[in-house]
Amino acid sequence: MLSAKSETFIENLRLYLVTSGKKEKEIIDLTGELKVHLIEAEKDGKNIDEIIDCTPEQYMNSLKREMDTDFKSLAKYLPIFFAGVTAYFIMGPAIRGELTLNIVQVIGFPLTAIAGLLIYVFFLQQAGKKQFSTKRLFLIGMIASACVTILFLLLLLGSGLFVQPFYTGSATVNWIIVGICSAIFILLAVWSKTWLTIWLPGILFIPDVLFRFSNFSDTTILIIGIVTFVCTFVIIILSLFLKTKN
Is-above-0.85 flag for pTM? Predict the structure, then answer.
């Protein structure tokens, strides 16, 4: 069995190489061989620092330079990312029956999505190289998510205030959009093998459903929205804590 430090190192190495666009098979083979090597070395009383003979950051950077970038996989994952981000940000307005489009959104949304992707990649690579713990990785993930969310909110709110929409969705179109977004979340769950992409939007869109189908005041819906937002992150923190404990 590997020590906890070596297990964390391998997971962070895998995270760093994945976010660097390296081939999945090469990553699996490399980390598998490294794990076997570390197990044997630890039996002889050596630790991870003695084995790699440099800092984790230097070791990861050297592997990154030696491995080929998998541009084919990157081309495959980018549409998945854009589909998920798009569904996340347009499903709420569609549920409320308020879906509109303006020229700033059409031009700015892809640019903002690319900026968001670069933010995620930067934070995750730093987490891998700096050997962040699970708790610190979660915190970094929340900071990255907050930065991306703020970018999209500024785009949506700013364009809505200063630019007139050129398209307003009908009731039928809004429900079609809701159906498409739901299908995207389900497909993402199947692809990623996790329920996170289903229950997370399900919780976060509760205020939008209440706005459309309840008689609650705007203040009450806002409070419910804040509570569901906080509860979502509490659940994620607890699940990570239990996973780490196990």
Answer: no
